[in-house]
Design a protein that fits this description.
Length: 178
């Protein structure tokens, strides 16, 4: 039996925890990435409205995914990727990604190219599309998404803290947040 994404406890979306990351955003993304990692296409489809409903439209969730996907790809390749590396990774990732998202390997490649700032094949993937498609790509690139996300959270939090002022200037996170 496949588990469905469950609703996180209601919290103020803007309220970060002690590590600087927003728990509600993290919980929603973590659940979605895990569903994608299990190859649960129905779960992915049913979770998309939750992403739209529960995530703020300020760029914070997309920034988390941007960082996590970059980190994972560099970890897999053991270096910063070239466009050719991203093409090869897209081809090998496509079978699992295609189980949960409609499209073709060019979509995976555009996601990867977008996070590494290489020109896209079809379209640059940003904003809400990056949250959904990037989360799905991350999920299928992980053997154990929940364990990986638990382990990577401190790295993301440290990176977030180091760059917080820049994120505020960009409007990704509000100035009132610590």
């Amino acid at each position: 039996m496949r588990r469905r994404l469950t609703r996180a406890p209601d919290r103020d979306v803007a309220a970060p925890t002690g590590d600087g990351l927003n728990d509600k955003i993290w919980s929603v993304l973590r659940g979605f990435i895990a569903v994608a990692g299990r190859g649960d296409a129905a779960g992915v489809r049913s979770a998309i409205p939750r992403l739209e409903r529960d995530l703020p439209n300020d760029g914070q969730a997309a920034t988390y995914i941007w960082y996590l996907l970059r980190y994972r790809v560099i970890e897999i390749l053991q270096r910063k990727p070239t466009p050719e590396d991203l093409h090869e990774l897209a081809i090998t990732t496509w079978p699992r990604f295609g189980e949960v998202v409609q499209g073709d390997e060019r979509l995976v490649e555009d996601i990867l190219r977008s996070v590494f700032k290489h020109p896209p094949i079809q379209e640059e993937i940003t904003g809400a599309k990056l949250i959904v498609l990037g989360s799905a790509a991350l999920g299928v690139l992980l053997d154990d998404p929940l364990a990986y996300l638990d382990a990577i959270r401190p790295h993301l939090a440290e990176w977030w803290r180091r760059n917080l002022e820049d994120f505020r200037r960009q409007g990704i996170v509000g100035a009132q947040r610590p």
